[in-house]
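QA checklist item 7 of 12: single-chain prediction sanity check.
[x] sequence parsed
[x] length recorded as 420
[x] structure emitted
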Amino acid sequence: MNKLRICLYGIKGSGLAALAQYLDDYGVFVYGYDKGEELFTEAELKRRNIIYYPFSYFLKQQENCDIIIYSTAYKENLKDIDKSKILMLEYHEILSFMMEGKYVIGVSGTHGKTTTVGMLDYLFDHKFSLIQGDGVGRYVSGAPVIMECCEYKDHFLLYRPKIGLILSVELDHTDYFSSYNQYRESFKKFGKNCEKYYCYDLYHFDLTNECLIGKKEDSYYHYNITKRGPEGFIINLYLGNKLIRGDKIPFVGEYMIKLYLFCLAVAEHFKMNLNLARNRIKKFKGVKRRFNIVKKSKTIYVDDYAHQPSQIENIYKTITQMSPTYAKVLIFKPDRASRLHDFKDEFVKSFLLFDKTYILNHDEDKEKLVQEIIEENPQIKRYSDSIGKDNNPCIYCFLSSKKVSNEIKQVMINRGDLSI
């Protein structure tokens, strides 16, 4: 019997790359198309021998497959295909179909989804199925599924998780959501679609299936910090009527405590031993492009997916906690023009936290905005390949949802930390 053939158009995207691996484990023949440039999601595709080609090889009506699954970003590329001949589905549509009837742990929120999914994967000892936003996926027969649920264009409203997490609700995707109220209402609908959901207490909706997590003392899961330092935190942890004093959290960045609590809430839901759960989560080593660190003698390099102002501010707080005496340098590569336009003031405020900020841009649609920001704020400069030719102890933060690996290499060369 021939295997089902599925073509993924945009296979190097973090969602489709993860889906490709899930389908590969499921026993489907998977292949795809994408841009020619090398992306961080490719390593796992290559390891599994999943074949992919440049977009220019795509055969449209003659494509020899049963289903084409595509990223929203490339929808326009496929508008001329005769849909009566080939079944075509967007990423969120196929996920909705595949997850029907499965035990899904759905992780939503403006920020923190990928890191939380990674933490949960450690919690369950890598034995659950996985759709993770750094391009990592896995299918395990009969196991629950941990998956990211993205709010973009209300895609996550097609899902029906058994357990939902709402980590944060800060207005984003303003090319679709016209107001914070509309954005918040979508998360409320997502909460209603869950059998039970856990929500950060700043954004609660007061639904009957809601359980709150945060710093407020009336939240079922809450904490207070007793000590913070370069290696992490010591907290008092309240889990309902349980108190755990002096819990050592080996992560920097206070937002990581919040994600830790969300994972413990899920552990309790599964009736796991709490000591086992805490130990497993604390072994978490991070996920791709989320606060990835390289340390050299006088320099720390941070590669992170942060592309929104509050994320940039969180990175600044985290590196200040980690290395308070080092100079902080930001290299930021903006993604969507709409995001940069609608949150321009917030971006500038976050940029000015750093000792130096450089904007890296090669896109025409953002050039006018970038130029305005630089002209209005003399402290903010345009990125150049000469950055890093000094010798002071320094943290370089490369923040973007786009590829910045070439710029990281260039600054490492300039600092003498990488040989040509």
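[x] summary fact logged: The two ends are 51 Å apart (CA to CA).
[ ] second reviewer sign-off
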